[in-house]
Amino acid sequence: MRHVLAFALLFVSVAAAALPPVDLPPMHHLVNIKPSKAVTVPRDFPLNHRGEIVCETCHGIEDIEDIPFEEVDKREPEFLRAGPYAKTTMFCYRCHEEKAYRRQNIHDLLDERGKYDEKACEYCHQKAPDPEKEYTREQLKLRLPPETICLGCHLKTPHLNALNHLRKPDKKMRRRMQAAERKLGIILPLDEQGRIMCVTCHSPHERGLIDVNKPAGKQVAGGDLKEGVVYGDHPWDTVYRADKQARLDKLQGNARPVKLHYRRLRSEVLLRLSAKDGSLCLACHAFER
Ligand code: HEC
Ligand code: HEC
Ligand code: HEC
Ligand code: HEC
Ligand code: HEC
Ligand code: HEC
Known about the structure:
Blueprint: H1 3-18, H2 55-58, H3 88-92, H4 98-102, H5 118-121, H6 171-184, H7 198-201, E1 230-232, H8 237-252, E2 264-267, H9 279-282
Antiparallel strand pairs: 1-2
The site of one heme C has 19 residues, from helix 7.
């Protein structure tokens, strides 16, 4: 099943063909389409008279199509119908089959023998690069600029502190980053404007695709890509939430509601350095300890 893989790339073209004369945010889910057998729409998600999915199917905000996008209140629990959802994917699974869907992890590039399928690379690269070679960013021929390539499938706010990190580090921080790159043998790539992007902290590839002794291949080990990031429950959870929720609400503004939990990161994947032991944060920040 190619659903998720196709998300970013398909939508641009499919959307243009299937859309009503209403503008949709970039990379938005397609609308005005009758669900096939592969999709199960819950009974309380209304379809239009032709049995097609429309704005109201997914959004519980009245006349959302008439509201300018920036003014849509994404914190409204019904922004995604029957929400809020802890993860957007949980919303997707209301209609799409979770099991079939989950398997399609684009980062899961290597098979049991450590081989890869060049087609998988070509969801992000126009042509599969050779992991043994060195490339400039231009030669990598990414299908979208590296600062936006993750956003068709992931939110701009996949987790707390992601969005407010997509900024330009000041000179002092740049120097600290360069020192960390040298000392730890990693890369912390920035976008063309010198801003932090998703791949500054995250590696887009499964560990081992690029030799782990090369800076671009060095990333945290141990986590299971199929399981993703795993958190453990923590007895402080309730206290932590009560303390932080008010502050968080203020910070978030119009962003999606974030369910805050004090959870221990148990295993990490696709990170250039560990956040669990703080080394990722310390590559940029100098925290008092
Ligand atoms: C199949 C489900 C589905 C349908 C149908 C749908 N949407 Fe969405 N929409 C989503 C999802 C999922 C998001 C992303 C939510 C997020 O960013 O967390 C979204 C996001 C949005 C946003 C916020 C974009 C942003 O990032 O600020 C707007 C506005 C929106 N949709 C409008 C519409 C309109 C108008 C229609 C009808 C023409 C529509 N949607 C139909 C699922 C749907
Ligand atoms: C209200 C039900 C509903 C929800 C919720 C929903 N989808 Fe869909 N989605 C559909 C329907 C209907 C289609 C049309 C294709 C079909 O029926 O098989 C579709 C098609 C797609 C496609 C195009 C692939 C293809 O088969 O052409 C992708 C990719 C996709 N959805 C991803 C998502 C993601 C990601 C989410 C969550 C952010 C999501 N969907 C949430 C109903 C839904
Ligand atoms: C999810 C998107 C995605 C997929 C899939 C993907 N890549 Fe990449 N790749 C990237 C991004 C983004 C960069 C650039 C990171 C940066 O700016 O340094 C990159 C960089 C690279 C680099 C250069 C690393 C360096 O900085 O020296 C190589 C080599 C590479 N990819 C090979 C592959 C191969 C081989 C595959 C398929 C097995 C693949 N990629 C699949 C997104 C992807
Ligand atoms: C400053 C570093 C940093 C940046 C920038 C960043 N992340 Fe993360 N991300 C992390 C860390 C650390 C985790 C591990 C879990 C956690 O602490 O939330 C994580 C976890 C994740 C997860 C798994 C979340 C979960 O709960 O399962 C996804 C998906 C993700 N990031 C995507 C992104 C995307 C997409 C972007 C760009 C919009 C991004 N990240 C930007 C550091 C970062
Ligand atoms: C074509 C869709 C697609 C693109 C593009 C994409 N991802 Fe993912 N990503 C996935 C899927 C599917 C998973 C598996 C977990 C899930 O279903 O959310 C995943 C998982 C992750 C995880 C682990 C989260 C967890 O706990 O499971 C991180 C971190 C992540 N992606 C970061 C990125 C970054 C950074 C980029 C940009 C270089 C990116 N992704 C581009 C589809 C995509
Ligand atoms: C790639 C560099 C980089 C990494 C890695 C990084 N940060 Fe940041 N962080 C920044 C930048 C840039 C800002 C923007 C504000 C500033 O200049 O201090 C920021 C801001 C913050 C803020 C303030 C948020 C706000 O809204 O003002 C906190 C808290 C924070 N980081 C915590 C962390 C933690 C915890 C980690 C590790 C999981 C981490 N950072 C990893 C660069 C980084």
